[in-house]
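Module 6 notes. Inverse folding takes a fixed backbone as the condition and produces residue identities as the prediction. Think of it as a translation problem where the source language is geometry and the target language is the twenty amino acids. Below is one complete input and output pair. Work through it position by position during the lab.
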């Protein structure tokens, strides 16, 4: 039986906060960057709920536009976030861990709130191939809705008992994975204190993930 590990990409594999913050600093100044990053995290899910058919690059542009309106700032490049995304780096441990998982026989999937070309650029940054990609703009649905997992199961034929979902966002990923009865590993990079629902396992980064996955779904 095939073993599948699926991942969120941004925040889990790719330094999403770092990439967004860098562009906010360029657009609004370093002194405002942390405050506006927190506001960005409020705006993005609102925009996704308003129009789930909106491509992710459009979500990025609209979030930046709303921030600029709130700050009374005129943007020189409204598409700055989408333009910068292909250069956002992976977290340091990610390439080695994903390569280790492939060597152990795990199949890898990415379930992401993004567009196909943006995700392709990020996977190129990581440098490790994945077997299946499910993206929001092809579904017309954004996580935490269940469509990403439903499409993944339909395309992969994965057995739920041999599938583990790995993600940094409790809201976008751990909650729906729990609702679907899936094993989950929360990569709690920010030291958050969300308690319900609890993931199957919790790590502070991907180090140690291959051993955890092998424990959850032995070969």
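Target side of the pair, the amino acids:
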């Amino acid at each position: 039986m095939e073993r599948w590990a699926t991942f969120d990409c941004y925040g889990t594999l790719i330094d999403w906060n770092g990439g967004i913050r860098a562009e906010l600093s360029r657009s609004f100044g370093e002194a405002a960057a942390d405050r506006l990053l927190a506001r960005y995290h409020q705006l993005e899910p609102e925009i996704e709920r308003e129009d789930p058919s909106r491509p992710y690059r459009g979500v990025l542009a609209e979030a930046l536009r709303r921030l600029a309106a709130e700050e009374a700032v005129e943007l020189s490049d409204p598409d700055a976030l989408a333009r910068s995304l292909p250069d956002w780096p992976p977290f340091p441990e990610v390439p080695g861990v994903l390569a280790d998982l492939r060597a152990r026989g795990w199949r890898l999937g990415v379930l992401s709130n993004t567009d196909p070309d943006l995700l392709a650029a990020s996977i190129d940054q990581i440098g490790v191939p994945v077997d299946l990609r499910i993206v929001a703009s092809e579904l017309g649905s954004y996580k935490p809705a269940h469509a990403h997992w439903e499409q993944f199961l339909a395309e992969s034929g994965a057995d739920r008992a041999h599938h583990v979902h790995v993600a940094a966002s409790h809201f976008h990923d751990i909650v729906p994975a729990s609702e679907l009865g899936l094993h989950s590993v929360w990569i709690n990079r920010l030291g958050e204190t969300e308690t319900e629902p609890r993931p199957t396992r919790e790590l502070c980064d991907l180090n140690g993930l291959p051993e955890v996955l092998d424990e959850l779904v032995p070969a």
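Reference fact for the lab report: The two ends are 9 Å apart (CA to CA).
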